[in-house]
Specification:
The protein is α+β, with helices and mostly antiparallel strands. The chain has 3 domains: 110 residues, Alpha-Beta Plaits, CATH 3.30.70; 192 residues, no CATH class; 143 residues, 3-Layer(aba) Sandwich (SMI1/KNR4-like), CATH 3.40.1580. It is built from 11 helices and 21 strands. A hairpin with a 6-residue loop joins strand 20 and strand 21.
Length: 473
């Protein structure tokens, strides 16, 4: 089954921002649709679509709003009949000791992914085929952690085929991964409405009517990949490509079952690839037009890199990194020393006491952990060199409410018992996870300001402070 979601924005001609936001929310409420920020979402598979489209056309006709822009997201929902998959998680590999617990794949859509040591062990012991691994190297990790590897397939999944609504005469070269060179030509899945062919069909007359309301080049399609069955490999892993220098890692049903069974892959972290017996007209077969691009690394390149890494691996084993500390007293002393060493800096810490902290605790919706109370006594409103601006006792109640208001239904933090206690210079939020009525030391989560997803997790405040202080080195 293909899930089709149309996300769109309506604007006023005079771009009155405050009035626009109010009218957008009123429109979404009238239509019974979800709105997130300025974007309204509509399920193109909904049985109520004709009624919603009719209401939308009427509301636009009697208001000053007009369709501005939007995008269609198509997802091939995996079921028991789905044969091939690709990773859809959003984890990004930075360094081994910074990866979230339970995360074993960092796919970075369209790029060659990184996988954990555990992933490599399970794939190897299960005798899954068509994949190679290369250690990511002794990265900038400061603490001992499970190691990570680049992972790539050795066999292509074929060129794929174009989206059935795409006009192949409009290829734009490397724009939107629409390669014109025969070697890199691959099925187009990302394109704008100025590239629709004349008889594009989005599943129903209502959907077609809604999509036709968008001005040219104001609507973009992000779809799933489509491949032909006759060009599928016999291996368990295979690759597709969007970029010339990188390869997407794909896997078959057998590999998926192994990964899920060993808790290396969870629901929502993979999406289906549609396997077709023949192209859907006017799409045509692309396989066979030229030799296929090689894998991310050839067998010879892989062997050379492994030889070059041999000495680095020996050095890594010979000089192990320290374990991450959970000693709160030690971490607090480190914070005190760093702030004392930086007394010449412009930041001025606000003095606080037990009475003020008790008053603060009564104003918060969740209990304040003892570890954070101790921190406030020495670092109230401080900036830590790992890029954390700590909320002061005065600021915390108001700023907690502000950060909590950003979390919307569907976001990773929605419904979690969180106390928001700091931000980064880039706008990420640091939050305490409060799961008991009398917390002492608790996990700290970092939420990415662009995705509202958890990007880091420290199991204790002590470990968080240790890293925020040592980031200066």
């Amino acid at each position: 089954m293909v899930k089709r979601i149309l996300t769109f924005r309506v604007d006023l001609a005079n771009r009155d921002w405050e009035a626009e936001e109010k009218l957008r929310h009123q429109l979404a409420k009238t239509l019974g649709l979800e709105i997130k920020g300025s974007w309204i979402s509509l399920d193109l598979n909904s049985r109520q679509l004709p009624e919603i489209i009719s209401k939308l056309q009427f509301e636009l006709s009697v208001s000053a709003l007009h369709i501005a822009d939007g995008h269609i997201t198509e997802t091939y929902l995996p079921d028991e009949k789905c044969e091939w998959f690709t990773f859809s998680g959003r984890a990004r590999f930075t360094r081994a000791d910074a990866m979230l617990p339970g995360c074993h794949v960092a796919p970075m859509y369209g790029l060659t992914p990184s996988v954990s040591e555990r992933f490599r062990e399970v794939v190897t012991s299960s005798k899954l085929t068509g994949i190679e691994f290369l250690w990511t190297g002794d990265d900038e990790s400061r603490f001992r952690a499970m190691q990570w590897y680049k992972a790539w397939a050795t066999t292509p999944l074929g060129r794929g085929i174009d989206h059935p609504c795409f006009d192949a005469q409009t290829l734009k070269g490397n724009d939107s991964f629409q390669w014109t060179e025969p070697e890199f030509r691959t099925g187009v899945w990302n394109f704008a409405n100025d590239q629709f062919h004349l008889h594009s069909d989005w599943g129903s007359s209502s959907a077609n009517s809604r999509i036709s309301m968008f001005p040219e080049r104001s609507l973009r399609v992000y779809s799933h990949r489509r491949v032909l069955r006759s060009f599928l490999p016999t291996t368990d892993f295979a690759y597709l490509w969007d970029l010339k220098h990188s390869r997407m890692l794909c896997f078959n049903q057998r590999a998926k079952e192994v990964l899920v069974e060993n808790l290396l892959l969870r629901e929502g972290e993979f999406t289906g690839i549609e396997v077709l017996d023949a192209p859907i007209p006017p799409s045509v077969q692309l396989d066979g037009i030229a030799p296929l691009p090689p894998p991310f690394k050839t067998a010879e390149e892989t062997q050379q890199l492994r030889q070059q890494q041999a000495g680095d691996w020996e050095g890594y084993l010979r000089y192990p990194k320290p374990e991450r500390s959970n000693d709160l007293g030690r971490s607090l002393r480190m914070v005190h020393d760093v702030l004392e060493d930086n007394e010449g800096d412009e930041q001025e810490l606000e003095v606080t006491n037990d009475r003020q902290i008790r008053k603060l605790a009564k104003e918060l919706p969740l209990p304040l952990p003892e570890a954070w109370k101790r921190l406030l006594k020495i670092a109230n409103g401080a900036y830590l060199p790992g890029d954390a601006y700590l909320f002061s006792v005065k600021e915390l109640p108001e700023l907690h409410v502000r950060e909590q208001g950003i979390i919307q239904p569907g976001d990773e933090g929605y419904g979690m018992p969180l106390l928001h206690i700091a931000t980064s210079g880039g706008g990420d939020c640091f939050s305490l996870l409060i799961e008991s009525s009398q917390p002492i030391d608790v996990p700290v989560l970092r939420f990415d300001h662009e995705t509202n997803r958890i990007s880091r997790r420290w199991e204790t405040i002590a470990a968080f402070l240790e890293e925020m202080v040592e980031e200066e080195d």
